[in-house]
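User: quick one - fold this with adenosine monophosphate bound?
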Amino acid sequence: MIIVLLGPPGAGKGTQGERLAARLDVPKIATGDVLRAAVRDGTPLGLEAKAAMDRGDLVPDEVIMGIMKDALASPSAANGAILDGVVRTTPQADGVAAMLDGLGRRVDAVLLFDIAEDELVRRLSGRTTCDACQRPFFGRQPGEPCEVDGKAGVLVRRKDDEPDAVRKRLQVYRDQTAPVINWYEQHGPRVVHIDAIGSLEEVEARALLALGY
Ligand code: AMP
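Assistant: Sure. Structure tokens for the protein plus adenosine monophosphate:
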């Protein structure tokens, strides 16, 4: 199954994407994670993407399509994938559909994580992220150790979780990503709304139910 997760920053796509990926035994493909790793490693991709990411802007569609071409064709995605934060513009929706078509596949489900904006701002402003495994933490301070994944990462405040960048990301979501909902309504598959407020288990159960589990 190819599953697209849509929703504003802070809605829980990454966390739920990871849970769904483990549950369905398919990889999670998150362009944000790929880009952050590239920035950390100082690769040409990272150098190209860093300024836009720090501002809370999107990186160019061509860059995302380059990442997705390899990711979707990878043998690890042969049984499906969870696309987390990947389709952020309508050209990306077109591009992913064309790539999948070329592989004889298609998007099977689109889940939209619904959440109010004031809750997003509250979540993102209290979030720290492990610089190694990229897991988010709430109520823990920058500089604390992560330890969850055994890599002993350090918790950092993402530059794009600073208030100005959060405002910018929400604006970008409204302007550029929200139209993707309409795109899928027109092209299919049907967009299923998931109430993103609740415990991790509750939201996961709603997502699994929407997927027919
Ligand atoms: P995320 O971790 O999904 O919140 O992504 C962090 C940042 O990476 C975004 O604010 C964008 O700057 C960039 N990014 C990630 N995925 C995409 C995408 N599909 N299209 C454009 N920019 C992206």
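One thing worth noting: Residues 2-27+74-116+166-210 form a domain with the Rossmann fold fold (CATH 3.40.50.300).
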